[in-house]
Amino acid sequence: MTNSERVAIITGASQGIGEGLVSAYRKIGYAVVANSRTITESDDPLVLTVPGDIAQPGVGQRIVDVALERFGRVDTVVNNAGIFIAKPFTDYTDEDYDAVTGVNLRGFFEVSRAAVSAMLPNGGGHVVNISTSLVDHANSKVPSVLASLTKGGLDAATKALAIEYAGRGIRANAVALGIIKTPMHDPASYETLGKLHPIGHMGEIDDVVDAVIYLETAPFVTGEILHVDGGQSAGH
């Protein structure tokens, strides 16, 4: 590749939404650095896989360092990796807290900090955070305070980054999701989960991918929390 081709870092990239995002960014001409805890090598020379747990200190910086070493630049980071644990608030354990905040907050922080540092010399870039509509529309059937704590923080950080770096060419946006058909959900639960959305069914991976690619190609959009949730955040 030439140094003018764009480069995207995608976390949680081994399956589901992350895997879909890798394919989509390649289709629009980006080289991709794909991370997850366990990810195998790609046959595509413009997809560099970097195994590692972003909850662990140093891993986020290493992903960006490897991206710069291989491709010479970073233009976009999609913070797709996340942990979701639904249980009553008083049932959460310290281990649950460490797991959820480790990936959802520390992972975002370290990868994004390093990525933004790499974007600044190139005059711009894009940070995309994957969030949840439960932040806006809590549901007693899905008790998930740790999701609201961490993803709500990401929504706020998205707006803060958008404003802090608006004058330096870096945009920040988030995609707040309803329940999406991914490998984490048993197909037997699809009908029940679909009823949690006003539209009456779950979302598809392509719905999320299309939203992220829209934001990638929308230079006048920053600080946006784009809901892809079948109407969930609007009410029920």
Automatic annotation (TrEMBL):
SUPFAM superfamilies: NAD(P)-binding Rossmann-fold domains (SSF51735). It comes from the Bacteria. Gene3D superfamilies: NAD(P)-binding Rossmann-like Domain. GO terms for biological process: fatty acid elongation. CDD domains: SDR_c. InterPro entries: NAD(P)-bd_dom_sf, SDR_fam. PANTHER family: BLL7886 PROTEIN, SHORT-CHAIN DEHYDROGENASES/REDUCTASES FAMILY MEMBER. Belongs to the short-chain dehydrogenases/reductases (SDR) family. This is NAD(P)-dependent dehydrogenase (Short-subunit alcohol dehydrogenase family).
